[in-house]
Design goal:
- The chain contains six helices and ten strands.
- By secondary structure, the protein is an alpha+beta fold.
- The longest helix is centred in the C-terminal third of the chain and has 17 residues.
- It is globular, with a radius of gyration of 20 Å.
- The protein starts with a helix and ends with a strand.
């Protein structure tokens, strides 16, 4: 364990040239700045820049987190999808509030989003499901995420059966598939620096308006 601790402490961080961040030049609302940072990550060829950590809590308040893909973002919020029978689906039903974290490591940039989560319409949820790849639709159609699995062969057989169902009915959508929108109450932008003088800017919503505030690193 001492060797691991020494190894971790010796790992480099914040290498290379990092982008500038001037909080005084930021827009009035966070979505515009988020989109600008996301496009910057894409231009910098950050792997999977639309990947994010979704943190939820169950009915007892116990947290869990996992990485998934951002589906859309606009003035209404950040969108992602989940099967209602999955762990995250059940947790969002019990406590419809969540947090998202984006981390674009080569740029030393992090964005944290928190707020209530609302369910989108059945039509929008179906459109999201049908836009998924064939393999992703087959897996999601099973609705067995996080349940015990006897063997990989059992998985493969079930997914193959689901794929056959979809081939016979390409418009099939499980009613449990739900598109969610996180309506942000706060959005924090974090720009790392090699000298550890990190810059943190948080947007907070009050009604329909946003306020901005710097935070200590």
């Amino acid at each position: 364990m001492a060797d691991v601790r020494q190894l971790l402490r010796g790992l480099p961080v914040f290498g290379g040239e990092l982008p500038a961040f001037d909080p005084a030049a930021t827009p009035d609302a966070p979505v515009e700045l988020f989109t600008d940072w996301l496009l910057g990550a894409i231009r910098a060829q950050v792997p999977e820049p639309h990947a994010m950590t979704l943190a939820t809590a169950d009915a007892d308040g116990n947290p869990s987190a996992r990485t998934l893909i951002l589906k859309d973002v606009d003035a209404d919020g950040w969108r992602f999808a989940a099967h209602d029978g999955s762990a995250k689906g059940r947790e969002l039903t019990a406590r419809p509030y969540a947090a998202l974290t984006f981390y674009w490591q080569p740029l030393a940039r992090q964005v944290r989003v928190r707020g209530p989560v609302v369910r989108e319409s059945a039509e929008r949820s179906a459109a999201d499901f049908l836009a998924r790849s064939a393999g992703a639709r087959a897996e999601a159609l099973l609705g067995r995420q996080s349940r015990p699995l006897e063997s990989l062969a059992e998985r493969d057989t079930a997914v193959a059966g689901a794929a056959e169902r979809l081939a016979g009915d390409p418009g099939l959508v499980p009613p449990e598939w739900t598109l969610h929108t996180l309506r942000a109450e706060s959005v924090e932008f974090w720009q790392g620096a090699a000298d550890r003088n990190h810059t943190r800017l948080v947007y907070r919503r009050t009604g329909s308006a946003w306020t901005k505030e710097l935070l200590w690193p």
